[in-house]
Amino acid sequence: MLDALIVETHPTMVGSMTELDDVTLVQHTSHQDTAAFEVLYRRFHPRVYNFIFRMTRNTELTEEATADTLYAVWKSAASFKHKSAVSTWILGIAYKTALKTLEKNSRHTQKRDQSDLLETVEDSHPDHDPARVTGTLMESDMVQQAILKLSPEQQAVVQLTATGHSCSEISSILDCPTNTVKTRMFHARKLLQRHLQFTAGVKGD
Amino acid sequence: MNSSSTTGAQHDAIVELLPWYANKTLEASDQQRVQQHVSQCPECQSELALLTLTNHAIASEEIPVPSATAGLNSVLQRIQQEKSGQKSQAYTSSGTEPDNRKTVIQLAKTWFHSLAAELSIPQWTIAACAGVLAVAVVLQQSMTTTSVSDAPYTVLSSGESPVTTRFHVEFNQPVDITTARSLLSQPLENYTEAVEWSVVDNTSFALELPESSLPVTGKIELISQLLENVQQHPDVKSAEIAP
Question: Would residue B18 count as lying in a domain?
Answer without folding.
Answer: yes
